[in-house]
Amino acid sequence: MKKYLLFLLFFTIIFLSSCGEQERLHSFDHQVEEETAAIYKHYSAEAFQNGDVPPNTLIQLSGVITVTDNDDGQSVKKNDRFILEAEGQRYQVINYSDSEWQLAEQVTVYGEYYGFIKAEQIKNEL
Question: What is the pLDDT of residue 21?
């Protein structure tokens, strides 16, 4: 009986500490997302069209993947180029992240602008 109570107490402590760890991880993830949004600026399609976005600017852009240069013609993997359609305009993006995507997915791209976008991070926008 004593062993059973010790085992139950040990299991409860482990369970409660893992719940606290999950909350800390969620809080950390949320903080990273807020900091990322503050670093990468959103520009309008008009700003891109008018040349108001200087090279080497950290930008964020949301849109739909419409074309990819991947051999299968459907997926986007690391180092693949793709077209992101946003606000009625098309932008060439190179996926430098480890994430993989499919045509027609709604995503937000975080990257550096060079006349094209070097995407360091891509997130799904469901």
Answer: 61
